[in-house]
Amino acid sequence: MNTENPINEDRVTTSPGLLPYANHVGSPAIKPLDKGKIKGRAVSAMWEQTQMQMDQIRQQIELLAEQARAIQNRMEISEKIYLAEMSFEPLIGREYHLYERKNGSQLLSMVGPKEWGRSFPFSAFLASVKLLSDHTWEITLQGEKPIVV
Question: Are 139 and 147 in contact (CB under 8 A)?
Answer without folding.
Answer: yes
